[in-house]
monodehydroascorbate reductase (NADH) (Porphyra umbilicalis), 422 residues
Amino acid sequence: MATTAAFLLPAGGLGAATRGLRGVRAPPAVRSSFTPAPWTAGRSTRAARPAAAVVMATSTYKVVVLGGGNAAGYVAKSLVEASPDTSLCIVGREEVLPYERPALSKAFLFAEPPARLPGFHTSVGGGGARQDAAWYADKGVDVKLSTEVTGVDVASKTLTTASGDTVVAEEALIIATGAAPIALTKTPGWDLDGVYTLRENAEGLRLYDALQAAKGEPVVVVGGGYIGMEVAAAAATVGCKVKMVYPDKHMMPRLFTPDIAAHYERYYTDKGVELLSDGRLCEEILGDDDGKVRGIIMCKDGEKTEVAAKVVVVGVGAKANVQLLDGAVAMEAGGIKVNGSLESSAPGVYAIGDVATFPLALDGSMTRMEHVQNARETAAHAVASILGTAAGDYDYTPYFYSRVFGLGWKFYGRNAGANVTV
Ligand code: FAD
């Protein structure tokens, strides 16, 4: 059992020092005045230094998760269920406890009243408990919120945070840093006020406000995949005049066949969304004198068209957050390469969720998946691997789902072979 005694929580943060400890422990009022107590048994210590020196904390747990997102919440669920005495710490940069991220582009943006935390904390989407602050306190799981990890030493399984504190994993370090939206950094105007991407709760809140303020006004959504389709549907439902710009022949080319896409495109058009597809690119984002977005320049076959926009939402894909592990573990297909136990090339260091490239048992390919069901199942499998209870290698059937307007779809397996539409 861990005996972590000193821990830091940013405002709104949550922590419990040990498993089995009931209730949330108040963070020390003055960080630099802490002196290690004899009962910390070396698990969590702050070196005694001269008063003026910055004092760092070290906390030690059996299992540590880097990243406090969707998959991290399911690690907590699985570990608490299977081994409640194994100490666990989650370190994440968001200011909120792990939640079901898919909610952000759905009822979060358009429902009345909008879906908000704590309503969709993990593991409600997977049929589990709503893991709110009381749940983590009760289970003795320490969650360090608003904490940016800036360094990872895989040999000692140690994280260093932006404030210089260290968090050590005695048995297993799980990397669950997810992915970051690709910004159109090569497109002039990409950073204007009024240009949005959507990944985290805070971004969702900003986008919600922007769409509310743009009722009846033009909104351009760049991208015709998952995020583009869902945000466009939400913006149209809010009452914005939506145009979607994407270069592909049809929506969701990765998963939809042309006839299924045609059905959706008709549906969107009927809902008033204008589709600017088939080779059309967003070439420039235009701003006004105050640096606020006012439109885009769209280009097809060298022909440029100006499209007005009060809000521009960019949904053109995401990149796995692997930077901290660059050079430290093997990478493949843009993610951290793991084996069937979800263990990376560094012993005791696992990767799960969007950041993991794993062997897909179905066809033997090395695959990275940015889908919530994979986040949930990799979390459960990594915990089983760590505890030595996994029945075999990770065996996942790809599963995707989405909801737009009144339509929902589910997709199982791979988009390969012949298609038969029924
Ligand atoms: P995340 O949930 O992204 O969690 C990663 C966490 O790590 C984040 O909180 C991040 O802040 C933190 N982090 C990263 N780097 C650091 C660092 N250095 N220090 C501290 N913390 C760090 N999938 C579906 O199947 N269906 C859907 O309908 C669907 N809708 C989606 C809608 C949106 C808007 C988004 C963004 C995704 C959607 N997904 C959907 C995908 C799904 O949400 C992801 O697959 C899932 O969130 C992956 O979980 P994860 O834990 O790997 O990553």
